[in-house]
C-alpha cells in the first residue's frame, strides 16, 4: 500500500478490517477482533505485544497487516494512530504509557529515542519547497500573526520571540490578552497566519484559522497530519512528526522546524540583524544587562 493510499484509508481502517474479515485466517481473525475492540491500545503496541495479547505469533501479526494491503505492521500501526490520537483522553494516554514507561531506568532512553525519531522522520519527509515558500511569505507579508494553543503556545511564543528580533511586524496571538478575534480583526490578504496545531487539536485554533481564512490571510499550518482540522484551511502545510510520550506531547520536531524558519528568514535579512544587535549590545552594556 503506497503512502497516499495509506493516508486516504486511515479513516476507513476499521471498515477495511471488517470487509476483509471473512478472507482472513483463524489467527488473523483473532487479531481483527482484538483491534476492533481495542484499537486505541493497539495503535501503540508492538507487533510482538499484539501477538502476545491475542495469542498468536508475531509473524501472524505481520501477515495480517500484509493481508490488509499494508507494507508492514508499522504502516498499519500508523493508520491506527491517525484514527485515535485526537480522541484519546489524558487518562487513556497515561494508562497506555504505563506499559512502555513502567521501568524508571528506561524512561530517559525511550523518550530521547522517540524525539530523535520524530526529528529524523520530519527531516526526511518535510516538503522543502513548502518550507521555502513559508519563509518567503513571512518576509513578504504586511503582518505576521503566530498562533498556538495550550502546549503549542510554547513553540508559537518561541517563533514570535526570534522573528521579532529580525522583523518589526510580528504579533503573537495571546489568549491571556483577551478575545483572539479582536487581535486579528484588522487582518487582510497581505498578512500571514502561522498556526501550530497538534493532538489533541484545539478547537479554538481551528476557529481562529477559519476566521483568518475569511479575512483572506495566507495560512501556514505546522501540524502532524494532513487530516488535522486546520489542514483544509491552509495554503501551506509543514508536516512535522510529533509522537506523544504518555500525556506529554513531543514538541521537539516542531521546535526544530521553528528554528529552521527563524534562521532562514534571518539569513535573508543579515544587514538589518547586524544593526539591530549592534544597537542592543550598546544598550546592554549601558544598563549592565549581563554579568
Describe what you observe in this structure:
Helices cover 59% and strands 10% of the residues. It has 291 residues and is an alpha/beta fold. The chain folds into two domains: 3-84, Arc Repressor Mutant, subunit A, CATH 1.10.10.10; 123-285, 3-Layer(aba) Sandwich (Rossmann fold). Strands 2-1-3-4-5 form a five-stranded parallel beta sheet, sandwiched between helices. A two-stranded antiparallel sheet has the order 6-7. Helix 10 links the parallel strand 1 and strand 2 (170-172). It is elongated. The chain starts with a helix and ends in a 5-residue tail after the last helix. Residues 11-87 form the HTH rpiR-type domain.
Task: Supply the number of structural domains.
Answer: 2
Arithmetic mean of pLDDT: 86
Number of helices, where a helix is a run of at least 4 consecutive DSSP H or I residues: 14
User: Judging from the principal axes of the Cα atoms, what is the shape?
Assistant: elongated
Give me the CATH fold name of the largest domain: Rossmann fold
What features would you highlight for this structure?
RpiR-like_SIS; alpha/beta; transcription regulation; 5-stranded parallel β-sheet; MurR/RpiR family transcriptional regulator; Rossmann fold; RpiR-like; transcription; two-stranded antiparallel ribbon; 7 strands
Q: In summary, what is this structure?
A:
The protein is α/β, with parallel strands linked by helices. The chain has 2 domains: 3-84, Orthogonal Bundle (Arc Repressor Mutant, subunit A), CATH 1.10.10; 123-285, 3-Layer(aba) Sandwich (Rossmann fold).
Write the layout of secondary structure elements.
Layout: H1 3-9, H2 13-20, H3 26-42, H4 47-54, H5 58-67, H6 73-84, H7 90-100, H8 104-125, H9 128-140, E1 144-148, H10 152-166, E2 170-172, H11 180-183, E3 192-197, H12 203-214, E4 218-223, E5 236-239, E6 244-245, E7 248-249, H13 252-267, H14 270-286
Parallel strand pairs: 1-2, 1-3, 3-4, 4-5
Antiparallel strand pairs: 6-7
